[in-house]
Amino acid sequence: MFKNKQFIRYAFTFIIIGIFYNFFYSGLQNDHLNILTPFLQSTYGWDDLTITNPVTIGALVTIVVYLIIGTAFVKYGVRKILVPSILLLALGCVGISFAGKSYTIYAISIFIVRIMVVPLQMGGFMLAANWFIKYRGRVLGIITAGSPLVSVVGIGLLTSLVGSYGLNTYMMIAAVLVVMAIITAFGLKDSPEEVGLYPDGAVVAPASENDESEETVSLKTLLADSRAWKLIISYGIFQFVITCMMSYMAMRYISLSTPEDIPNLFVSKALFWLSIGAASGIPMSYVLGWIDDKLGSIKASIVLNLMFILAVVPLAIMPQGGNGVLMAVWAFGVACMTGGVPTMHPCVTSYVYGRKKYMAANKWIMTIQAIPMAFALTFMGAFNQAGQLTTAYYILIGLLVVSFVTILSMKNIPDANAADRDYTKVEAK
Question: Which domains does the chain carry?
Fold first, then answer.
């Protein structure tokens, strides 16, 4: 790959901007609610559901948005859809900054933000699937490090900025998003074939695509495919758990605060461990990508499932006032979880359906997965307001057992692009 200078120029541009895609996707999907919710509660007296209801409604709308955006990417190309989407995301951030006490402006703006983060993630996924096969896992492992970076620096930075500038912080976010849109428009291409290149910088077309079936991936064929349902169930649970975890971890720590934790347990102790643990967990995004490239997506998915346990169990058993060891394990698990799913979701979908059919299958898979994910905030908010947040975490652990069993049942699924993957050379020997 590094021998092809034209290819590597596009590849490096994508890797750099891809880190930002994942950083802002994770940050603006739900993570920023960790700071926004306490700020709005203390400033305007709004309760949990008042703050998160527009996000929940937005999440419901994204069920359709996944399908629309996926279809548009296939029909018109990634950049033609992604650039205006990023600009609309920036506009939503501007709206939050101007909202003040106006709940209407706040609700409309955060609704737009929740919807328009979807193309940011899907676009990055499709570009990675288009440009890489042999190095797909490792490249995704690098760019998806942007997600745990939110835990390492994003949440702390956002906490500090909101404390100093209030909602004007979202104007700064909007400015960065505009720059991202410009780079996407002029620095990237939808596929290597668009500029006379091949995936991974190869000099010939992928061998695994020579005998590829011409059958399209329709909703009917997908619903009749057991492989699709296994993907939907396992990674649908992952998406649901991430949304629950990342939107309510601050509130969890606040609920466990003691009078000695000033201003609260999240700020006084958990943020420190989040930075330390998440920093140590960031390399796991690349490790999962390496496992995917060398051993296959199913084995990498099993490892990812175990990493989820490290994130959820400590919060379920966390004592009042916190515990340093549990916080360190939790923070490491959070980094593995938030970086691992963006790495592995496109990998495992490409593994099952191949590069050319990736988005045709992915748009339906992510649409169905978005249905339970849309209710994640309501699920956590209801348990929190009932004073039963611990129970919610035990339910999440039960779901992860289901996903683990589902992934194990996928072990005999073949790799659609096996002829162009590293591990086929090992098997040949």
Answer: 5-193+217-428 (1.20.1250.20)
